């Protein structure tokens, strides 16, 4: 029997995509950051994410931050479509020795995120679990009839590849406290012609590869232009990997990775007033994924943070 | 520190309701079967549910049925608002020794349910878990601008209390294979003036009590009119509880419990052609919850299937 872990989650997503009931209402479906639905009354964007203790956070992490993360992971997916989140529902499986105070901390974190981004926390479900804490958030974004979602599939040869903020080492803290790039996404989608966008949850190399697969294109990244986070340098001292490697392959930065025509990119870079600078890190090509450093070009493997890797799954 | 388990999930829902960001867009929010949102473009109904191995199903249950259940639990919530489900997203935490075949079985079950009720399966998220399998489904229902949700809060003194199908003993199998009463809900909301409705997930007594709390009313149930499922009789032989007790307090029947004026109820009962008969089981009163049997009236405790009960939570 084929082992689930040997193919990873993307194989399963492929399977789901194939067997999903064909819904005429779906403008963009499984495989992008969000599904975009044509409700009879207008477009609705929806995303769902599950975070699990031991995988996305540790038992000892502050529960308020865990609640914040649960909400913001989904907000980030909505932002990656070029929209702001409108409403959140959360289902929680709580360990059966949880105290009321612990449960409240989680919901205070969720609530803090909802307040920060003016999202309605509209419902939820709680259940007990003998296993680890897990939180499932589903977030909706309401769009106007004119809304055009920014998909992964729109990258064009010659496009500049850009990224918000800095990358790598999120495990040292940012993965729990990051600010989803909702404001930046709105500016990008209202003021610029963005061709393709994704949020960096699996890592720069892996998420860029998602864009390339959907756009049937390639890319060249310039190593010296990648904005490396202080945390990546810090982590590098402990792991033996370079800070650049961390910036390329660490997951859960939740920055926006996007492509636009070079002149649009220049206009953005000239006028940018985001909380953190945007960096142009490469360009879209016909095929392949490469990284250039000191005049040398080498293939860049789209490795990143993939669940089920190194989780010790048994072969069947 | 107050123990979470000592107050049960309803205390937490109360807390969430209090701290939820006030969203003007929410017509009916936390505490009903679904939230009803006024999207700028029209009403959207949304519900989210988490089912967890060891709580809502057993490790040895057929995974296709588990997938079916995950979808249908949420379909049932949408039906309880008087609407049909439109779209589903599912997030799954899969044990890390899961095979690809096992994962596929779950999604085939989800897909089967979506096909049966013409729901678009539009997206999802999978993650690994060292704990039990858990599935979180979020389901949307699109409504026309004229849609009036059937809330828990609309019961009126003098109303007849009705229920679809038969009750009790769902643990013997129905909890995995039930047919959510979507068709019945549509007939009820289009052809009748239903005052209040809920689906029976916690048990007849407990779910009726939810209606009473939201409607600020009471009820009298007639024991001899309760439709007792064969499974309740079967289970009664093993547990020492009466079949009636099972019908009153077993959870996960996923039948519809609703109230309407007596003449509407008579019209429904005369013309009914549902898959399974509808039964009139009692009436709404000013206050209290009672059951009558053989001319005797006694208080009925709103006990039912509440998560965290009997789960061995440690007191802090």
Under the CATH scheme, the architecture of the largest domain in chain A is Alpha-Beta Complex
Query: N-to-C SSE series of chain A?
Result: HEEEHEHEEEHHEHEHHEHEEE
The rounded distance between the terminal residues' Cα atoms of chain A is 6 Å
CATH class category label of the largest domain in chain A: Alpha Beta
CATH homologous superfamily classification of the largest domain in chain A: PurM-like C-terminal domain
Main-sheet strand order of chain A equals 8-10-7-11-9-12-13
Describe the structure.
Two copies of one chain form a homodimer. With 316 residues, chain A is an alpha+beta fold. Chain A folds into two domains: 4-142, 2-Layer Sandwich (60s Ribosomal Protein L30, Chain: A), CATH 3.30.1330.10; 152-299, PurM-like C-terminal domain (Phosphoribosyl-aminoimidazole Synthetase, Chain A, domain 2, Alpha-Beta Complex), CATH 3.90.650. The first copy, chain A, is built from nine helices and 13 strands. In chain A, strands 8-10-7-11-9-12-13 form a seven-stranded mixed beta sheet, with helices on both faces. In chain A, strands 1-2-3-6-4-5 form a six-stranded mixed beta sheet, covered by helices on one side. In chain A, a hairpin with a 2-residue loop joins strand 2 (35-39) and strand 3. In chain A, helix 2 (63-79) runs parallel beside helix 5 (182-191). Chain A is globular, with a radius of gyration of 19 Å. In chain A, 58% of the residues are buried. At the A-B interface, helix 1, strand 2, strand 3, strand 4 and helix 3 of A face helix 1, strand 2, strand 3, strand 4 and helix 3 of B.
């Amino acid at each position: 029997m084929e082992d689930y872990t040997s193919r990873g989650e993307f194989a399963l997503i492929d399977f789901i995509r194939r067997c999903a009931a064909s819904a005429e209402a779906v403008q963009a479906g499984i495989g992008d950051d969000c599904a975009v639905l044509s409700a009879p009354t207008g477009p609705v964007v929806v995303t769902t994410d599950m975070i699990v203790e031991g995988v996305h956070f540790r038992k000892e992490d502050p529960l308020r931050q865990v609640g914040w993360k649960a909400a913001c992971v989904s907000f980030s997916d909505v932002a990656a479509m070029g929209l702001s989140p409108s409403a959140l529902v959360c289902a929680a499986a709580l360990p059966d020795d949880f105290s009321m105070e612990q449960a409240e901390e989680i919901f205070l974190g969720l609530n803090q995120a909802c307040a920060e981004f003016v999202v309605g926390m509209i419902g939820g479900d709680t259940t007990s679990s003998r296993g680890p804490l897990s939180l499932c958030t589903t977030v909706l974004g309401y769009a106007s009839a004119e809304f055009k979602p920014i998909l992964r599939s729109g990258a064009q040869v010659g496009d500049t590849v850009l990224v918000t903020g800095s990358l790598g080492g999120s495990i040292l803290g940012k993965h729990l406290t990051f600010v989803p790039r909702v404001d930046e996404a709105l500016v990008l989608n209202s003021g610029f012609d963005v061709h393709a966008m994704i949020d960096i949850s699996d890592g720069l190399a892996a998420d860029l590869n998602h864009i390339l697969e959907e756009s049937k294109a390639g890319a060249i990244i310039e190593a010296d232009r990648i904005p490396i986070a202080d945390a990546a340098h810090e982590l590098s001292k402990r792991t033996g990997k370079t800070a650049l490697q961390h910036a390329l392959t660490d997951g859960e930065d939740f920055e926006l990775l996007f492509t636009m025509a070079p002149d649009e990119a220049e206009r953005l870079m000239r006028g940018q007033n985001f909380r953190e600078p945007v960096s142009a890190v490469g360009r879209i090509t016909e095929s392949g994924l490469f990284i250039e450093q000191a005049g040398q070009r080498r293939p860049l493997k789209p490795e990143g943070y993939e669940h089920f890797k190194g989780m010790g799954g048994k072969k069947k």
